[in-house]
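Structure (tokenized):
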């Protein structure tokens, strides 16, 4: 459980404003201004805290489409030169 994002998670956090403007919402851990739930909520157990999970597949991210709540998976692909 890390109080800060890992280096592989910065891309998604930095993409949050653009993704939100396109109609998609990231998990709380990847939103700007994220504060770990274990700092603000001492009553939940670790397994009740969605934001304690770190990603081990940094190219993939689950998002929710804001207009209807549907879940999607995004994949980061490298830019071609």
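Design, position by position:
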């Amino acid at each position: 459980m890390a109080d800060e994002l890992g280096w592989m998670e910065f891309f998604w956090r930095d993409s949050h404003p653009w993704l939100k403007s396109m109609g998609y919402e990231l998990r709380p851990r990847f939103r700007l201004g994220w504060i770990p739930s274990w700092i603000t909520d001492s009553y939940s157990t670790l397994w009740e805290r969605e934001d304690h999970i770190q990603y081990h597949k940094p190219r993939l991210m689950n998002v929710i489409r804001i207009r209807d709540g549907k879940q999607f998976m995004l994949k980061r692909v490298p830019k071609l030169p």
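Reviewer-requested clarification: The mean pLDDT is 80. The two ends are 37 Å apart (CA to CA).
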